[in-house]
Amino acid sequence: MPSSDRTIPGRSPSRWHLRIAAAALAATVATTSVQAQDLGVIGPVYPIAEPSLLDVIIAKLRAASDDGTLGRLQREALARIRQGIDDPAPVAGLVRTRHPRHFHHDPSIVVQEAIRDAEGRVVVPPGTVVNPLDTVPLSQALLFFDARDRDQVAEARKLIDARHGQVKPILIGGSYLELMRRWRRPVYYDQQGVLTTRLGIRQVPALVTQDGRRLRIDELP
After folding, report:
1. What pLDDT is recorded for position 43?
2. 91, 131, 207, 214: which one has the fewest Cβ atoms less than 10 Å from its Cβ?
3. Residue 124 CB-half CA count within 13 A
4. For residue 128, is it left (φ>0), alpha (ψ between -120 and 50) or beta?
């Protein structure tokens, strides 16, 4: 064998030894690659499947319909709706007038943002004080009372007749539908006490009338 193919201690491997090492490395990589690809099958394989949410909902509705649950829930919901319409929740915090009083309420508001017309021109600049009574006067008095109290209902009827019907009855308790049927005229309801809270009313019956650019409020005995 020529001296160029020998490995001499302290010198770099010969070209022949490098070829052997490269061939061995290639064989190792090839063997490893084949082994990594051929893992085989471990256990049974199943397709991934999830139930449709719509199908689940429909199935539950059908089951509720079959056992009568759905019909019962519908009847209960309709009963609650009818109850809310026929006899709304009374306004909290109001009492029958014990100490009659009268006071005034200024309905003016301060415009926070500029009001513009269709062409973008400023009609009302911010900071302007606007009193709605300057534009829309109170054409009818407002009468707040509790229809659960027979005395209040009777006094309200007398007051409405005395003012020739120019009074808008507004309930804070009781059934406005039942009173409308009896009186054959519109009767309103102060839902969640929005109006009485804004006007500062604490006792009923209370009569609201216009007094110049303010509202006069009389909590009647």
Report:
1. 64
2. 131
3. 11
4. beta
Query: Cβ of 126: how many Cβ atoms within 10 Å?
Result: 11
Please name the residue that has the structure tokens 């650019």.
213
How many C-beta neighbours within 10 Å does residue 160 have?
A: 18
For residue 28, the Cα-to-chain-centroid distance in whole angstroms is 68
> What average pLDDT does the segment 192-207 reach?
96
pTM of the model: 0.63
Share of the chain above pLDDT 90, in %: 55
pLDDT at position 58, please? 84
Helix then strand count (H, E) for the chain reads 6, 12
Please give the Cα distance from 140 to 209 (Å, whole number). Answer: 8
Other CB atoms within 10 Å distance of the CB of residue 57: 10
Torsion angle in degrees (nearest 10) through CA of 13, 16, 20, 23:
120
DSSP 126: T
